Amino acid sequence: MSLTHQDVARIAKLARIAVTDEEIVAVGAQLNNIFGLIEQMQAVDTDGIEPMAHPQDVSLRLRDDVVTESDRRAAFQAIAPQVENGLFLVPKVIE
Amino acid sequence: MKWEVVIGIEVHVQLNTASKIFSGASTAFGAAPNTQASAVELAFPGVLPVLNRAVVDKAIRLGLALDATINQKNVFARKNYFYPDLPKGYQISQMELPIVEHGKLKILVGEEEKVIGVTRAHMEEDAGKSLHEDFQGLSGIDLNRAGTPLLEVVSEPDMRSVDEALAYVKALYTLVTWLGICDGNMQEGSFRMDVNVSVRPEGQKEFGTRREIKNLNSFRFLEQAAKYEIQWQIDTLEDGGKVQQATVLFDPDSGETRMMRSKEDAHDYRYFPDPDLLPVCIDSAQIEAIRAEMPELPGAMQARFVAEFGVSGYDAGLLTGSRALAAYFETVAKVSGQGKLAANWVNGEIAARLNRDGKEIGDCPIDAARLSGLIARIADGTLSSKLAKQVFEAMWDSELSADAIIERDGLKQVSDVGAIEKMVDEAIAANPKAVEEFRAGKEKALNALAGQVMKASKGKANPAQVQEILKHKLA
């Protein structure tokens, strides 16, 4: 498969990465190389092989349900661009 | 044209853990903004999620209660989207391998039973809250709720009416509170429902195009929203229009659903397994240990109440609305030895009074022992049902037992034949017209006479005896 410039623009938009029209050409070529590799991998016969969710064959360690964090809002908000009444302020977003 | 409604429902159940799903921050509701948002919820660089064991245990509990498959290996995935209430840029959820699949939940609509399929239930993190009103051109973000554990419970599109949809969400609500995995506080968002609605001409196999009503937090809103949406879709189709797949919001003020402004790429979440989290492995011993601790479930308890106490299926359904209510009823039924009477009183007077006062069974001023005392006096004929209500009123506003009130107010039912005969004779003598009418075949006249006797006894005469003696005397 080959990605069109439109595909590349859409992928960039979904990832919130700004790309110029010139960059789209270069990025598109790189992405197509990656997809080429994926195509090769997809040609391998994987019948009967369990899909792998993680490269390490170990299971997840769990923690007990205990509150261990204290309030560190002041420290966290000291580096926030804008706060008010304990809230982080961001450019207006509304659906 | 006749239309058939098809409904499927997704419910976000907040689990009642002490700490968050992936961090040790508190989940307590109502704290000052961002005081319970740790570096994990804020998505600081380098932080890693560590899964809370209680979330897995509670998911297994629900899975067992839904008679579902527990996937002993399940996987967390990233659901990617950009929104400031989720600073990571993705929600940790489950996609291909959720913890619970293929469950079923029995519902009762009127007297009719139906089984609704539960496609899956998966673990995920809740997002924060955005406040849009108070700031000029800005939104305020509170991340206290971010990372609160959720189980998203997804049903099959098995419901065919709003009544079935309501019965399903209510049955699920009962179950998650019964199991003690959710606090059930709907005002605080502990149980949030998304309802997928479509209509199709009756007899058509394919589903119609659906619209999803998002984020309903009360059963009444669900009912209003679904009814409005169904009518809107039918009207649209009958006017020759088409229903476009969309997400809509319900506005409780107008009672209408309206389209959400949504971006064209909004649903491209690009799920992939989260490399920060290894697969969750659950061994059979853990499942069996949880199974051994499971309480008797509402469905099993309903069947037992019918068999053990002779109550109707409908009454058993009401009595198992919550574990506290079921326990209350069972105590009353056992102590009084009167299952049916106990059911009538718990579902009748008690339910009505609690409802009137906005109280739950746990706050009921008459405890199970006192209600049992009242029922025992009805069963042994001391109280007529009318007198029993009078005693009940007095009990509701005091700490006294039924016996103490009967004694204090002299409310004992008169079952002394001699005394009743005397009052009957007086009534017959005083109402020759009614006597004549009854003898002429007017059955109703007997009630008038019985009423006179009851009045003369100040309501204390045993009504069955009054009727019997009257009939005997007039025969």
What does this structure look like?
Chain A: It catalyses: L-glutamyl-tRNA(Gln) + L-glutamine + ATP + H2O = L-glutaminyl-tRNA(Gln) + L-glutamate + ADP + phosphate + H(+); L-aspartyl-tRNA(Asn) + L-glutamine + ATP + H2O = L-asparaginyl-tRNA(Asn) + L-glutamate + ADP + phosphate + 2 H(+). Chain A: InterPro entries: Asp/Glu-ADT_sf_sub_c, GatC. Chain A: It is an enzyme of class 6 (ligase). Chain A: This is Aspartyl/glutamyl-tRNA(Asn/Gln) amidotransferase subunit C. The complex is a heterodimer of chains A (95) and B (475). Chain A has a domain at 5-43: Orthogonal Bundle (Histone, subunit A). Helices cover 39% and strands 7% of the residues of chain A. Chain A has helices at residues 5-14, 21-42, 73-77, and strands spanning 83-84, 87-91. In chain A, 8% of the residues are buried. The model of chain A has no long low-confidence stretch (mean pLDDT 90). Chain B has 15 helices and 16 strands. The model of chain B has no long low-confidence stretch (mean pLDDT 92). In chain B, helix 5 (298-309) crosses helix 6 and helix 6 crosses helix 8 (339-357). Chain B has helices spanning 53-65, 162-178, 219-238, 284-292, 298-309, 313-319, 323-336, 339-357, 368-379, 385-396, 402-409, 417-430, 432-439, 444-456, 463-474; strands spanning 3-14, 69-70, 73-74, 76-80, 90-94, 100-109, 112-125, 129-131, 138-142, 149-155, 191-201, 211-216, 246-251, 256-259, 272-273, 280-281. Chain B has three domains: 3-289, no CATH class; 296-409, no CATH class; 417-474, Arc Repressor Mutant, subunit A (Orthogonal Bundle). At the A-B interface, helix 1, helix 3 and strand 2 of A face helix 1, strand 9 and strand 16 of B.
